[in-house]
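Progress against Task 2.4 (sequence-to-structure conversion) is shown through the following example record, which the project officer requested during the mid-term review.
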Amino acid sequence: MGSGKTYRAKKLSATLNIPAFDLDAEIEKAAGKTIAEIFTEAGERHFRVMENAQLKTFSDKQDFILSTGGGAPCFHDNIDWMNEQGITIWIDEPPATIAQRLKKEKSHRPLIANVPDDELEAFFTKMREKRKPFYAKAKYHLTDCSGEADFLKLLSLYE
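Structure tokens generated for the chain above:
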């Protein structure tokens, strides 16, 4: 969450001339509801089942970029499935950077909607540690992700 996955996917898509998809947007389209509404009405467990089902719809597609929500790799063996399907990348941004980016978007992010601003960095630090075993399974791990150098790293992975 907040690492810039969707932003980078769009940028790579334009450069490589292949389609980019955002898994959360695809879930919202299929459900006719926002992620926040799904969480509120049915809970995280239901959302994760929907997320897994939507992820698997990409099994027949070729040459595309898919950005997933930060929790997607952590449920239903999704990271293992994604690794079997293609290139996986962990974009590892510092918790402080993510907290700063997402302060203004909290109402659209069910997992942080009720976290006070001054506790966001600690929240992301804890979440990162909890999810790290799953993220670490990604084929590539990008750190210090900023600017053009980051984009060139991502581009070189595809070639």
